[in-house]
Amino acid sequence: MDPYKVLIEVVKTESFTKAAGNLYTSQPSVSRDIKRLETKYDVKIFEFKSPYLSLTSEGEKLLQYALQRESIEQALWQNLKVGSQIIAGTLTLGSSYTYGEYLLSNQLTKLTQLYPDLHIHLRINNSDTVINDIKHNIIDIGIVEKEIRDNAVECQKIKEDEMVCIYKKSIEPKMDVCFVREKGSGTRFYQEVGLSQLNYNPYLIEINNIKVIKQMTQAGNGFTIISKSAIQQEDYETLVVKPLNVYRNYYLVKYIDKYVDKNIDIVIQTVLTDEIG
């Protein structure tokens, strides 16, 4: 037990026995704590003047220190309690390309408007890189395009996504070249599933950017399979958007032992509320 708290309680009650009762401990334990202080500072704290227990001059000084210490501790607790409710500071969010480029902007805008003192740094990479950054504490939380089976990472589904095949509207569309994401991308896995469904075996060109892939497709240089959420309304004027029976999910991920403070929690709740709600 904190001997300074014991000292304050003994002075309050003017009794070792009553102090022990209030502190839910024994009288010998209270005596030991007072003795610890006397030994530490090489002083005598109490003098017994029957029927009263009084402080020595050194004891008075120790009491004042104990009271100041308790006051500082109470102020600290109050400050921490209030501070924990304030949404402010910095946070690093990782996202895979499709979600980060096409779906995250509204959520970040909402967070910026509601919590102007919360500064979010966004890192966009493929899903494998996001997971690696999570595990090395480079980012606080992440959003990926494939389910992660790793005991070091917590994974929560936030949104279902549909994959579609797109190519330029043309009399003879170029279907012998397919633009795909690099290995390690969540999109790449589902592009291969889509190609298998279509029974296509085109020449593959890897590009690590969905926007560039769309531009190459719109230019009529080939076709691709991408998330339907990456298709804008105006894209339907120049592109054929062919539905596939290929679906995937977006997942919110964090390190299994990550401490979720108020900042992280508010970002998580915003993403979950926007997607599930």
From TrEMBL:
Residue stretches making up the HTH lysR-type domain: 1-56
Gene3D superfamilies: 3.40.190.290, Winged helix-like DNA-binding domain superfamily/Winged helix DNA-binding domain
Top-level lineage group: Bacteria
InterPro entries reported in the protein's UniProt record: LysR_HTH_N, LysR_subst-bd, WH-like_DNA-bd_sf, WH_DNA-bd_sf
GO molecular function term, any single one: transcription cis-regulatory region binding
Keyword Calcium attached: no
Pfam families linked to this entry: HTH_1, LysR_substrate
UniProt KW DNA-binding keyword: yes
Keyword annotations from UniProtKB, A to Z: DNA-binding, Transcription, Transcription regulation
Coiled-coil residue spans: none
Family from the record: Belongs to the LysR transcriptional regulatory family.
Name recorded for this polypeptide: Bacterial regulatory helix-turn-helix, lysR family protein
Species of origin: Staphylococcus saccharolyticus
Gene designation per UniProt: cysL
